[in-house]
Structures are given as C-alpha cells and as structure tokens.
Write a structure and sequence with these properties.
The protein is an alpha+beta fold and about 400 residues long. The protein has 13 helices and seven strands. The two termini are about 30 Å apart.
Length: about 400
C-alpha cells in the first residue's frame, strides 16, 4: 500500500491585493463537491458484518434462559483469559525492549562500517558466500600453473586504468537509499526528488519504550542543502489492553497513533510542496485571473507529517479515508522497525526480498479468477459512477 499525502491538505493561496472575494476557483469547488458525495459501496463490508451479527443474535435468542446464563459465565471466563493475554503481550514488549539494548552495539558497528568510520578486519570480513574474488584468484593461479607445465607464457591481463586511478569508496555508498529502492513498500513512497536527499541518510535507529508503550524511528542525515535537521523522528504509540466495549476483539499490542516532526527545509528545497497556477473565472463578470497556489506534493518526507487522529475518536467515528491512511502509516512504521532495521544488509543485497518472495506460491485458482475479478471491479466502478451521477 502506498502512503500518500494527506487529502485534507491545506492550500496556501496567493491573492493579489484588493482581490474580489466573489472570484472562485471552479476546480476547487468541483473537488469539494466530490468529497461531499457519499460512496455507498464503501460500507458494504460493514453492512455484511451487521447482518451476520444480527443473525447470530437471532440464534442466541432461541437459546433457553438457563443456557444463556451458562454462556454468560463462559464469556466472563473468556474476559479473564483476555486480560491474562494482555499481560502476556505487555511482558513480551518489555522483553523486546530489554533485548533491543543488546542489539544496539551491533547496530552502532554497522553504522561505522556503512559510513566509513571503521574498516573491518580480514577475519571480520570472512563470509562463505562472498568468495567470488577468491575463486577468481584461485582460477588464475591454476591457469598459471598449467601454463608453466606446458611451457606457455601466461597471458597477462593489464588492469583497467579507470580501476587503478579510481579511489576506493568510503564505507558503503547509498546504503540506505538502495534499501529504500529495494523494498517495495518504501520504494512506492520515494519520488525522484527524494532520492538525492535519501543519499544523505546515514542510519535509521529504533528506540523502544515500556512506559508509555511506544517506539521511535530516528532517521540520521549528514549535513545537506535540503534541511537543517540532523535527525528526523517518527514516534508510534501502542496500547495493550482490551477495549471496554469490545474486549474480545483484542489480538495484542496495537498502534493507535503516531507523531512526526517538523522538517526545517531550506528555502526552495521543500520537496513536499509544489507551486501550481490556476485560472479562475468570475461568476458574473467573466473576468479571468491567474492564482498561484502551494499544494502538497507526493514525497517520502510526508511520512514525518502523518494525519492527526481526532481526540477520543472511536473506530466508527473515524473517516474511512483517514483510517486507511493511518493503517498504512502504522504498517510502514512497524515494518521498518521489525524488518528493515534488523536485517538492513539483507535488504541492501536483496536477499531479504527473495526470502519474502519465497513465502508466496503460484495459485492456479487465483489465476482462474483474475479475469472475473477485473470484470467485477469494472462493473462496480460503472455502478459507482452511475450512482454519483444520479446524486449530482
């Protein structure tokens, strides 16, 4: 899923002095009108769930009172089990925080190697799969020995001048940028203007907290011309307790909100904004003017300005689009913490991507239903458009 800019973007409009307030942007009006049109198909799943719940309630309504009393006793036992499960997950999180401290020295050493502050020794660099150069050297030695035995002059291949004159790179260039490009979940967020900025990304660190239950992602950058921050942070808050009104839906720790940070962009370097010009026509006089607007632009760095969740908002009160944005954001943060940071070198080489691809296998049944699914989607789109036209 792609994390896109907040649709509730704030537009900064530049108007000429003494502008007539009756001038309006027709395109903006259309966008606002479209947003007000309800999509009846988005709640289809909720309707089905309600019908299923009602059917179950009808079944229980036919149960004798004495059996209902026993079912209530079982639910009370189930609630006790759920509360024990919540304590279990809380202790698991505390254990994760404890062991995270043991990983930190290794992550620091990785940071030093990636950025050229430390050069690993021969012993530290030995790895069974990295024997291509050694095999090549052994092959050349074998060939030279055979040439000597057959009294042939071994062929000497001169080194390329560009290889001899080119200095060794410092550390592992573009380590994190390459990871972002390899991981589909992240590469879909990265736009071309983001890449030179991510070239300055030196490390991603994770800080784990028990109270409150949370974790923070810290993105460390080298000095650059884009912004003055040396570190950009994203904090995710979790809860690990059953909901009072729906305790049996508890499945473990849940991210319920996140907080980004302010990026201090240098002048003209903010890739999360773009300037557009729009023509506006006066309703009555027909006068046309050009207005310059600053609007939100697709960028990975929108990641640090997540949409805000209304205070004390319950699940059913959250807008579907906002819920989807938050869910995607939470998934990305969790994935960076659980997968990308711990296995960074394997995502750099692509091995981690291959491992995840191995988890999937071809399903002939899915292939057989692809055309039908596409056809159904087209029919749904047509029906939705017809419904929108009727509402308009």
């Amino acid at each position: 899923m792609v994390y896109k800019s907040d649709p509730r973007e704030k537009m900064a409009t530049t108007k000429p002095e003494h502008a007539d307030e009756s001038l309006e942007d027709s395109s903006v009006e259309e966008e606002e009108t479209e947003q007000k049109i309800p999509n009846k198909f988005m709640d289809f799943t909720n309707v089905l769930a309600s019908l299923e719940s009602q059917r179950n309630a009808d079944k229980l309504g036919q149960v004798p009172p004495v059996v209902k009393r026993r079912i209530k006793a079982l639910k009370k036992l189930q609630l006790e089990a759920t509360n024990i499960e919540a304590k279990f997950f809380a202790e698991v999180h505390a254990l994760e925080c404890k062991y995270h401290k043991l990983y930190v020295p290794m992550y620091e050493k990785r940071h030093s190697i990636v950025n050229g502050a430390y050069e690993p020794t021969e012993e530290e660099s030995q790895w069974p799969s990295d024997d291509e150069e050694e095999n090549l050297g052994n092959q050349l030695k074998t060939k030279a020995k055979i040439d000597e035995e057959t009294n042939k002059t071994p062929e000497i291949i001169p080194k390329s001048p560009e290889n001899t004159d080119k200095p060794d790179p410092l550390g592992i260039p573009n380590f994190w940028l390459t990871i972002f490009q390899n991981v589909n979940l992240l590469s879909e967020m990265v736009q071309p203007p983001d890449e030179p900025i991510l070239g300055h990304l030196k490390d991603i660190k994770v800080d784990c907290s028990e109270n409150p239950m949370s974790f923070t992602l810290s993105f460390h950058f080298s000095p650059n011309q884009y912004f003055t921050n040396s570190v950009l942070t994203k904090e995710y808050f979790m809860k690990c307790e059953p909901e009072e009104d729906d305790p049996f839906n508890f499945e473990g720790p849940e991210i319920y909100k996140c907080k980004g940070c302010t990026i201090n962009w240098n002048k003209g370097m903010n890739v999360t904004l773009k300037t557009v010009k729009k023509k506006q026509k006066h309703k009555s006089r027909g006068v046309v003017r050009t207005v310059t607007k600053t609007v939100q632009n697709d960028s990975f760095f929108n990641f640090f300005a997540p949409p805000e969740l209304p205070e004390n908002a319950k699940g059913e009160e959250i807008d579907d689009e906002l819920r989807q944005l938050l869910t995607t954001d939470f998934e990305i943060g969790h994935y960076i913490r659980e997968r990308v940071v711990p296995r960074a070198v394997l995502f750099y080489t692509g091995e981690a991507i291959e491992d995840e691809d191995d988890d999937y296998e071809d399903d002939d049944d899915l292939e057989d239903t692809t055309e039908d699914t596409d056809s159904d989607e087209k029919d749904n789109d047509k029906t939705a458009k017809d419904a929108n036209c009727k509402q308009q």
